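Input record (one chain):
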Amino acid sequence: MNKTLLLLILLLSHFVLPAQESFTISGTLTNAKGEKLESATVFIGNSQIATVSDKDGVFSISGLSAGTYQLIVNLLSYAPAKQEVVIKGGSEVVNLVLQEKGIALKGVVIGDESKRKNFLKTFNKYFLGESENAKGCVLMNPDVLDFSTNKALMQATAEDFLIVENNKLGYRIKYLLRNFQYNSAGDVTTYDGEAFFEPLKGTEAQKKEWKVNREKTYKGSLMHYLRALYTNTTREEGFLTYAVTNQLFPMVADPNPVSTIQLITRVDSNFIVVKYPKRLYTVYDPKKAADELRLAKGDKIIEYLDKTGSVLMIKAEIDAKGRYSENQNILMQGFWSKLRVGDQLPFEYDPKEGG
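The corresponding structure, as predicted from the sequence alone:
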């Protein structure tokens, strides 16, 4: 073989290999007595990746790219365990000790059937959401939920995975709920947990519909925006980002979009840091984003946070999939903050592939 050609092939191989690099998260699960724990469900939060520990308590999840992952372990009679794992340049070993569940003390448990139906309706509204996608969701096992109240505060807990079928997006979601609270006095909802996604089986017609709905859901989402920040293509992908100039509502923003390159510091080939000293107002408007014209000097944007825009305060390290550490600051108001489980997509979602 020609030496020049051989050298060229070797050089090309050198540049291709890093893109193909994948890593593994593995480890062993034990209890406080040191006993190995078999048949525990181990999954990556908000993904389609899951496995089960073997008779020696060993688990392994391979084929992972560099990024930030939430590793979740669930086993009957034990409290769920969660560990953030950041893969940067090599595989990671995570050994976890699971704690046995104590006897939980509950508040006023809602046992009356009519009351339970009302509280289940409230739970569905604020957990699944009120969007078109949410309307296509069915909670398959509501019996695993326990409700309790304390004045205006409604709380919900679950001893097992919540199973949600999203017939609009074509996913079966297993959601490990840690806590859910709804305060009717202030109309404030807080909940915490992790989702695991399984694609539903469907007809070819259903699959086409799911593909369309997934792309529609993805476009303009926080996941879409963070990925666009990672590639520094927010404007090209339809986002406009403005600096908020006041602290109160209605919100006032500078009329000229921020160049998002100002927000980004590249850490390495796998991570960026995004931060900005002020709040940001972000809107998804591909038509306007494609228009290079600026508003006249002296104009200003006044918003009451309608259905289209989101206010964002951000300081976080982000990977190519739009994942970030839970210990970092991404605070939202407006459109993104109102989206619930019914509008979630797994991190594997790729609009080019439709799944």
